[in-house]
Amino acid sequence: MARVHNFSAGPATLPECVLRECAAEMLDYRGCGMSVMEMSHRSGAFQSIMDDAEATLRRLLDIPENYRVLFLQGGATLQFAGVPLNLMRTRRAGYVVSGNWSKRAWQEARRYGDAIVIASSEDSSFDRVPAFPDSVDQTLDYVYVCQNETVFGNMMRDFPQTDDVPLVADVSSCFLSQPLDVGAFGLVYAGVQKNAGPAGTAVVIVRDDLIAQGPALADICPTYLDLRVEADKGSLLNTPNCWAIYVCGKVFHWIEDQGGLKAMERSNWDKVRLLYDYLDQSGLFCGTVRAGDRSIANVTFRTSSPELDDSFVEAAAERGIVNVRGHRLVGGMRASCYNAVSPASVQELVTCMADFEATHAGAAPENATRAGATPTQVTSGSPTDPKGVRSG
Ligand SMILES: *Cc1c(COP(=O)(O)O)cnc(C)c1O
C-alpha cells in the first residue's frame, strides 16, 4: 500500500488510523451486523454516534452551554444563504471580503438584503487580510468574515471589533487547526471536508438567542435552513449525512488524543513554517501572501512563470507529492497542510522544491519579488464566477 503525500485543499488527507478504524468497522459496526452507512439515522446506535461527536467537539472547542451545535448538509456554501435567511432581521449586514469565499458569501447575501462591504483586499488580489474599520454601525444585523481564505492563503489573527453586533465566521479551512473562541461569535460554521472529515456536512455553531425567534426571513427560509427547527430536531429534521458525522466523530477523538487544539496549532505552525521559511530565502519560489497574514493551513506560492509552475507540479507528482496545483483562480501552487498532513510529507515537499530550484537555477527573472508578490493574473473565470471555482 502506498499512500501519497496529499496536499489537497479539500476533500483532504484524513488520519490514517481513522481510515483504518472505519475499515475495521465497515461490515459490522460494533456488533450491529451492519455498517454505519446502512443503519437508521433514528437508531440508538446512530444517536450515540451523533451525541458522542457533538460532546467531543464541545470539549475540543470548549463550546459554551448557550451555543447549539448542528451537523447540516449543503456544505459551507449553503450557509452563505443560511446566515442571511436566519440573521438578517433588518436586512442590513456588513461583510469583510478577504478572498473568493467571503466574496461569494457576500454575493449570496445580496439576494436577501443590503450586504455592505466594510473592508476588502480585492485591490491587492487578496494577498492580505484587509484593515478592519475601527467600529461598525451598531444597527447592522451581523458582521461576516471568512477567517481563513483557502484559495488565496490568507488568515485573520484577529477579528473586527463589532461590540453588540453579532460576528459570523466561516472557519471551514482552519476549523480545528487551532483554538477558536466560540463565545466571541454569534455563529461560526465550517464545511468539514477541509480538516475534520469527509465531504457532505457543515458544522454550524450558533448562539441560541440568535435563533430563538426563528429565521429572520421566515416567509422565504426553507425549513431545512431554519436553524431553530434544526436545533430543536437535533440535526435530524431529515436524514443527515450519517457517514460524514461518524468519521468526524473519529477525527475529533483523534485530535483529542493528539493533545487538543493547542497541540494541533503548534504542530501546524511547525509544519507550515518549514515551507514559509523556505519561500522566504528562495530565489525561485515566492509566497503570495503578506507575511503577517499567512495561513496556518493553505500555503500559496509560485515560481516566475506558469510553465515552470507546471513543471514543478509534475516533478512533485513523480515523488508522490500530489494536489499542489493552485486553485485555477490564482494559478501557481498551494500546499494545504491540514492536521492530518504529516511533518514528513511537508519536509518531502520542501526537499522537492529545493531540488527543483537547484536544477532550475537562473530561471527566476530579475523582477521576481518575494513575499507579497502579486499572484499570477487570473486566466479563467473570476473570483465571482462559479464556473471558475473548484473544490477548496
Ligand atoms: C471549501 C470552502 C467553502 C465551500 O465549502 P463547500 O462545503 O464545498 O460548500 C467555503 N468556505 C471556505 C473557507 C472553504 O474553504
TrEMBL record:
Residues 5-349 form the Aminotransferase class V domain. The keyword Cytoplasm applies. The modification N6-(pyridoxal phosphate)lysine is found at residue 194. Pyridoxal 5'-phosphate binds at residues 76-77, 101, 150, 170, 193, 238-239. One of its GO terms (molecular function) is O-phospho-L-serine:2-oxoglutarate aminotransferase activity. Belongs to the class-V pyridoxal-phosphate-dependent aminotransferase family. SerC subfamily. This is Phosphoserine aminotransferase. It comes from Olsenella uli (strain ATCC 49627 / DSM 7084 / CCUG 31166 / CIP 109912 / JCM 12494 / LMG 11480 / NCIMB 702895 / VPI D76D-27C). The gene is serC.
